[in-house]
Amino acid sequence: MKGLGELERTVMEVLWAREDAGHEAATARDVSRALAGDRDLAHTTIMTVLDRLAKKGFLERERDGRAWRYSPSASREGYVAELMLGALNETGDRDAALAHFVRSVTDDEAAVIREALLSLTLKEPPA
Fold first, then answer.
1. pTM of the model
2. Phi, psi of 71 (to 5 degrees)
3. Which of 44, 65, 75, 91 has the fewest Cβ atoms nearer than 10 Å?
4. Backbone conformation region of residue 98, classed left if phi is above 0, alpha if psi is from -120 to 50, else beta
């Protein structure tokens, strides 16, 4: 999964925030209103960005009368995990990169990693 441009990321943040708040899928008008205070963007620009994000697979869309309703295809966390995996794939030595990453995390983050690894090992069938 490729990275997002600045405006694409801003639009995705609006949609992820709506999803986190339990709102339904958004129209281009909803996104335009959400960004109105921060950026001076034409409504057609938002429509174009939403269309491109849907074509790239970042958004799902469904018809609602004459408008489209958009929702993220994956969570923000899923997207960031894909970016991290992509960056890891760019290294010449995945093991060294992982070890360096783990040494750089906080104690709380290390606890989250330990818990995730433990839950993976508990799900594995015995050898």
1. 0.79
2. -145, 150
3. 65
4. alpha
User: What does the block give as tokens for 112?
Assistant: 């989250």
**Is the separation of the CB atoms in 70 and 50 below 8 Å?**
yes
Q: Are 75 and 16 in contact (CB under 8 A)?
A: yes
Residue 27, C-beta contacts closer than 8 angstroms, at least 6 positions apart: 64, 67, 68, 69, 70
- Strands 67-72 and 59-64 turn out to be antiparallel
Look at residue 4 and tell me whether its pLDDT is greater than 80.
Answer: yes
Q: Are 27 and 47 in contact (CB under 8 A)?
A: no
- Which element (helix H / strand E) includes 124? none
pLDDT-derived band of residue 38, with 50, 70 and 90 as boundaries? confident
Residue type for 120, please? L
Q: Note the pLDDT of residue 75.
A: 93
Which is it for the CA torsion 86, 15, 32, 51, positive or negative?
Answer: positive
DSSP per position, 22-53 = T---B-HHHHHHHHTTT----HHHHHHHHHHH
Contact 35, 42 (CB under 8 A): no
